[in-house]
Amino acid sequence: MSETCIIIGASHAAAQLAPSLRQEGWEGPIIVIGDEPYVPYHRPPLSKAFLSGEKDIKGLLIRSAAIYEKNNIEFKLAVRVETINRSHKTLTLDNGEVLNYGKLALCTGSRVRTVSLPGTDLNGIHYLRNVSDVERIKSDTSAGKKAVIVGGGYIGLETASVLKKLGMDVTVLEMAPRILARVTAPELSDFYTRVHKEEGVNIKTGIAVAGFEGVDNSVERVVCADGTHFDADLVVIGVGIVPNVELAQAAGLEVDNGIVVDEYARTNDPDIVASGDCSNHPNALYNIRLRLESVPNATEQSKTAAASICGKKKPYRTLPWFWSDQYDLKLQIAGLSQGYDQVVIRGDKDSGRSFAAFYLKGGKLISADCVNRPQEFMVSKRIISEDIDINPDQLADESVPPKELMTP
Ligand code: FAD
Q: Does residue 286 have its Cβ closer than 6 Å to ligand 1?
């Protein structure tokens, strides 16, 4: 009898890992266990086309049921894995069921960071991570009413842009001195601040939320530490995420800002891999360990994890990349900008809606933020992944076509 491979978590990482296992030659049963009631669905549209109503749940599914059926992949949904017993190679589910595994993949992802402030349990206050969160937000969305977004990161800003389009009066409250401070340079923060203001969103920075007040158990206002307050019929809190590592930790696996894995997605147990948002992995291009919160990471690392389960070695060496959609703006980010010593802007970021910000370190391109600039994005990915030398003086020169930026 062939061994069973169990995947915990049914989202982006699992949707890639399970079919990749078959491609790599895994012949035994594959079981995916997820605590949400759906087969894997695209999470990014939750703050975009699903919130705006342009897509429904069917339009979000990553793969059709037929693909899972064809690959003989079984799902156990709306059920949680409570414990892993590594010496007996068993899992216990919250419905009491005990399952044996031969190999195990941890794709447990992450969850929202919650705030503990007075009034967070009032109706009308939401977080945004899964389909049911967005369904609740939608039921509190109403044109002409007031929405307050707590947190000026990508998810908060995407939510602001959709709620504005739906006719709400939107305010974003950010504690840091600028929006997107954790993830990007001041140039990008200035750009998005301008765009949101032009669209009619009220952005307040350097302001700490102290609590929420309401009547009849429903939120009415957000109160800030400096005494100011903002009326609100709907509040969405987007202040980051934390990786789901507790299951791994309780099972004695190494955890350090994510489940620690090597370049083959292997944990310190030879029968257990981890991939996606929950993993802390090495990145050879930047020579650091990191935890990424992105779909391309979940997908690519899961191909590596599937190969490792099947006894093959396919190192994970992909350049990190990300995207964000707000209004008519498609931001594509190639690489990681941490540690840059120079920013070069190509295009008009002060009054236009299309430009690229190139981040350099010692004259080398390490990252690029490209707003409505798909060519610059593709070229930047190549330059960084293949370590191609560039001439920094050409980056800002729009008379040099993007492709030619690869020629020093
Ligand atoms: P997750 O998607 O977090 O899935 C993990 C799953 O495992 C969850 O369903 C969880 O409930 C389940 N689980 C955890 N523990 C257990 C257990 N013990 N038993 C059973 N099930 C369990 N990324 C981008 O690249 N671009 C974007 O534009 C973008 N936009 C986003 C917008 C929103 C609103 C959100 C929430 C995320 C966005 N992301 C975006 C991030 C992206 O969705 C994540 O990086 C991706 O979902 C990670 O996939 P994953 O499979 O690793 O984990």
A: no
